[in-house]
Amino acid sequence: MLNAADTVLKTELPLPFVARGKVRDIYQMGEDKLLIVTTDRLSAFDVVMPNPIPNKGKVLTQISVFWLGLFSKIVPNHLISTDIRQMDLSSEVLQKYGAMLEGRTMLVKKAKPFPVECIVRGYVTGSGWKDYQKTGAICGHVLPANLKQCEKLVKPIFTPSTKAEVGHDENISREQAAKMIGKDAAQKLEELSIKIYQTGADYAEAKGILIADTKFEFGVMNGEIILIDEIMSPDSSRFWPKDKYETGHDQPSFDKQIVRNYLSGLDWNKQPPAPELPQHIVDQTSRAYCEAYERLVGKVIG
Ligand SMILES: Nc1ncnc2c1ncn2[C@@H]1O[C@H](COP(=O)(O)OP(=O)(O)OP(=O)(O)O)[C@@H](O)[C@H]1O
Ligand SMILES: [Mg+2]
């Protein structure tokens, strides 16, 4: 197990800075590339925790890389390299930051992202369960009556949302998505999203993980649609252990549940700053991320 000295909460590389998300630090590389560094930050209830989670950045990066290999026959993607020696970094940067960047960094093609998040749901849960209870449908997909909470859908559904610059993303109908990005593009993204999800979910299920839903992002590069961002990670999806699956109630998840449960027992109003997490919660969470990786990929994170 790594200790806190091996974790990365924030990077400050001497490169043109693009953005700091809740989890990733992004830098510009030349005209048309990005360096995406996945830190060990964890957010829960949309607030970033003060403690880093050992190995989380590496797990998220390696899971994305693993899926990109599996999906490369279905859709082209943004990945150029995960080898820090192949990223055109100066020898100074490599010397000073190489050890920190190793395993958590991707050099990618910079695309023009579509302003919609491509969500695919294979099970009725989360906001989908709430919509279904109210309306019998999820984002315009009318579903059979009497579905139970967390029940598997006969076929996965595409439920896009806006990509809000600030605040929460908003669910939209497929018609609204078509208005925003054009009918052909919307249809293509739906087709690709369902196909990738199905391929990944089938693979994961055989390894004991149910991927209940996930969010993909696509962009355009030289006129071609490519898959960008993180791919089917425990952060962008719901990972459920298959051996504990049971309909009728919420499922335990592989990763953030430990932190969410801990935080829910506190008197914290879910506004920043978040409270410090105790060591045993950090350790359990780190183990959960590593286990998801190990089950899926069949290798120990290194
Ligand atoms: N190849 C790419 N080209 C252009 N933009 C990309 C590419 N890959 C990912 N991105 C963008 O980079 C960002 C990823 O950063 P990150 O996940 O940290 O932030 P976020 O998802 O916007 O916000 P947060 O995680 O804080 O909710 C996303 O906005 C995504 O659209
Ligand atoms: Mg993100």
Which features does this protein show?
single chain; Phosphorylase Kinase, domain 1; D-amino Acid Aminotransferase, Chain A, domain 1; 2 domains; 7 helices; 16 strands; binds adenosine-5'-triphosphate; binds magnesium ion
Structure overview:
This protein has 302 residues and is of the alpha+beta class. It folds into two domains: 1-110, Phosphorylase Kinase, domain 1 (2-Layer Sandwich), CATH 3.30.200; 112-244, D-amino Acid Aminotransferase, Chain A, domain 1, CATH 3.30.470.20. It is built from seven helices and 16 strands. The chain has helices at 56-71, 91-101, 126-135, 174-181, 183-206, 257-264, 279-297, and strands at 17-20, 24-29, 33-38, 43-44, 47-48, 79-81, 105-109, 112-113, 116-123, 137-138, 141-142, 152-158, 161-162, 209-221, 224-228, 237-241. Strands 8, 9, 12, 13, 14, 15 and 16 form a seven-stranded antiparallel beta sheet that branches. Strand 4 (43-44) and strand 5 (47-48) form a beta hairpin. It is globular and about 60 Å long. The structure holds adenosine-5'-triphosphate and magnesium ion.
Q: How would you summarize what this structure contains?
A:
The protein starts with 16 loop residues before the first strand and ends in a 5-residue tail after the last helix. It is built from seven helices and 16 strands. The chain has 302 residues and is an alpha+beta fold.
